[in-house]
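[recover] target loaded
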């Protein structure tokens, strides 16, 4: 699918193994709803500054999904601020950008609703959605949000999309991985996206 500003969705989330299943479900849902998921993982150029790359992608996306569920401290007792920071960049683009940037809309995800108030009180009054670390709950939230914000009549119900995702995740993806000579636990973002795009026509 060709990407443009009005169908591009910036996904701001953790990339660790424990989050992978939620990330996979979100990417699938974005594609299945007729949009293009965008991520800093889509580019791998050692000459590009990471922040510059993120700014560039944010500028090209009307929609943004921001998951703040992984801000806890690491083994060195430091918190993870990447996701709140990138959410701030997204907010700033809408606030100070041109007419196109002011059309931005965002979905803010958490593990437990309103837990963000403990570490980023500036967001008080913002309505978030809690996925409880459950991929299919995240799938439903993302589907419902895209349906509401885009008003696209072609977006089908979350139960059907969840059924199709389970078929893809449990049957089609393993077959693709084997066919293409890849490792299931080390797929690149691009490989995973291409597999979804190749699968959509025959799982609908």
């Amino acid at each position: 699918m060709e990407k443009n500003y009005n169908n591009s969705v910036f996904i701001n989330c953790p990339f660790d193994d424990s989050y992978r299943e939620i990330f996979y479900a979100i990417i699938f849902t974005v594609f299945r709803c007729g949009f293009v998921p965008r991520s800093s993982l889509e580019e791998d150029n050692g000459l590009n500054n990471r922040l510059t790359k993120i700014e560039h992608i944010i500028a090209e996306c009307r929609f943004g999904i921001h998951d703040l569920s992984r801000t806890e401290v690491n083994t060195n007792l430091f918190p993870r601020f990447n996701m709140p920071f990138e959410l701030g960049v997204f907010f700033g683009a809408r606030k100070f950008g041109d007419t196109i940037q002011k059309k931005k809309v965002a979905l803010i995800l958490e593990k437990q609703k309103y837990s963000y108030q403990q570490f980023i009180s500036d967001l008080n009054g913002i309505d978030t959605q809690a996925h409880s670390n459950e991929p299919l709950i995240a799938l439903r939230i993302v589907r419902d949000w895209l349906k509401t914000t885009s008003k696209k009549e072609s977006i089908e119900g979350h139960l059907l999309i969840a059924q199709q995702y389970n078929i893809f995740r449990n049957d089609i993806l393993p077959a693709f991985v084997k066919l293409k000579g890849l490792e299931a636990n080390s797929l690149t973002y691009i490989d995973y996206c291409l597999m979804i795009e190749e699968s959509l026509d025959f799982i609908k």
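[recover] notes: The chain has a mean pLDDT of 91.
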